[in-house]
Amino acid sequence: MTTHNKSALFPRGGAIAWGLLTLFAIAIALFFAAPYVTFDAAVSRIPLNPVAPLHFTVLALHAITGGIALLVGPFQFLPRFRTRFPAVHRITGRIYVACIIIGSIMAAYSAIVSTAGFVAQVGFLLLASIWFYSIVQAYMAIRQGHIQLHRIWMIRNYALTSAAIFLRIWLGLGVAYLAKTHTLHGDVTSTPVYTSAAWISWIVPLVFAEWFIIQRFLRPIALKQEKVDKQAQSVKQA
């Protein structure tokens, strides 16, 4: 009879999660981001603001750079990839950083000129702002040689990048519900489903990322420090 301990289960679970995330990233990049490379406004999946002539161009740049970041990101977290191909890791890392910087700035503009309403605009603008801030922090950390801190900020950043995945999942479920209840009238961006997606799509993955950071990085440090403090207290009492 084969037995499994906790340490053996976590790598397998992590591999499954990584595989699912990568598959979703590829699907979103190919089916939702890739069409924008033609820069044909007809492929736009959201209503364009008629008083903002650059809206589609900016939206296309956001989609393209975001799609590249979605594809590149998962491979940056593979320990074997980083160890065996450090030069490739650095090059793809620079590509990722450039894509996030461009994509987040374009996303901020798109949020401001969005026709989806004020609540959705604020949600997407906050996402763009935190997305930009987290990649700057990740870049500064690695430049200063703080590898662990860099990884923590990269986890947060890719969680925000994956908002593109959660957005489509939430919209898909929402549209299915509206269609079933015969309450879908007009474009989906004018519905509460889209408004809620502007917040849920990035809050959910970011909360999970923070939980992962606590379990993977902060909890071991806290337990180690607690052990050191107890040993020091024992020495004082001796």
From TrEMBL:
Record InterPro entries: DUF2306_membrane
Entry keyword set: Membrane, Transmembrane, Transmembrane helix
UniProt-listed Pfam families: DUF2306
Transmembrane intervals: 15-34, 54-75, 95-112, 118-136, 157-179, 199-218
Record-given protein name: DUF2306 domain-containing protein
Taxonomic source organism: Reticulibacter mediterranei
